[in-house]
Amino acid sequence: MKLSDFTFDLPQELIAQEPLSNRSNSKLLVLNKQTGNIEHKQFYDVIDHLNSGDCLVLNNTKVRPARLIGYRAQTRGKVEFLLLNRQENDQWEVMVKPGKKAKVGNCIEFGDGKLKAEVKAVVEGGNRIVQFYYQGIFEQILDELGEMPLPHYITHQLDDKDRYQTVYAEHRGSAAAPTAGLHFTPELLKVIENKGIQIAYVTLHVGLGTFRPVKVDNILEHNMHSEYYWIDEKEADKINTAKKNGKRIIPVGTTSTRTLETIADENGQIKASSGWTDIFIYPGYPFKIADALITNFHLPESTLIMLVAAFAGREHTLNAYQQAIEKGYRFYSFGDAMLIQ
Q1: 143 pLDDT exceeds 80?
Q2: How far is residue 97's CA from residue 102's CA, in Å, rounded to a whole number?
Q3: How far is residue 216's CA from residue 248's CA, in Å, rounded to a whole number?
Q4: 67-145 belongs to which homologous superfamily?
Q5: Strand order in the sheet with 27-31
Q6: How many CA atoms lie within 13 A of 105 on its CB side?
Q7: Is the whole model's pTM more than 0.85, yes or no?
């Protein structure tokens, strides 16, 4: 299976640069994965396609404001950090730009010295291990000084950090938002619950690897990144009960899908668990638990569009993308959504 099998041409102006004022006013393309039939709706119409007893599975990870802009203490040269992995004793693995300004021993200051960092080591791939120094609580300082690590294709500044969070975000640890969930409002979630639809939560901390391009022509040679997940017994029971009753399991986003497909056994049952997943889902994958899928429109040649193509079929997926382009749908993180059923 070739990388070029998952490409399409997207006009630059369709890449959404900012969120809509009302989350649930985005467009919704409804795709029948059996027939390829397509309907065009608004996202708040999703309620019409959910049935009592269905189980909607949401990823309640919370994005860390992990982008820090600072200055070298010696020269005042500008340095950008992107926090990746927290280690022991206030040490972090960070991505640095420009790397030449972050040599071992260099000190960087953020927020007029409220937060300081010393570069301790250079690791594989060019990332740095840094030691942070501060007074107070690190998370509070990060909330004050940090910016949201928006994807590279979003060039506008985000005025409200919460717009790159789902309304149900709870457990901080992601480097990127589970963007399919950005369309839900508290009011829409209430309507969904009132219709008798179960809402279950998993947590998968989205890593920057989600944006890492596939660089091999044969996609089977791609090395998938790992991300940490967990689900507790209460949420697992909701999913298992819905499955037992013959109702649909509907993950919201590729992250929820990957988590469920990692945990599920061959009978589509899951149990409370945690761990790291590097599951790579591409056409030919036999889904064990997902019956429908809510997702955004993804980058060409990405592992995300490969997952969607695995679920809906490659031809149906690319046809749906082409129709979305022709009708002016907004793409990527702040863009519109699809429901595949």
Answers
A1: yes
A2: 8
A3: 35
A4: QueA-like (2.40.10.240)
A5: 38-42, 27-31, 337-340, 293-296
A6: 1
A7: yes
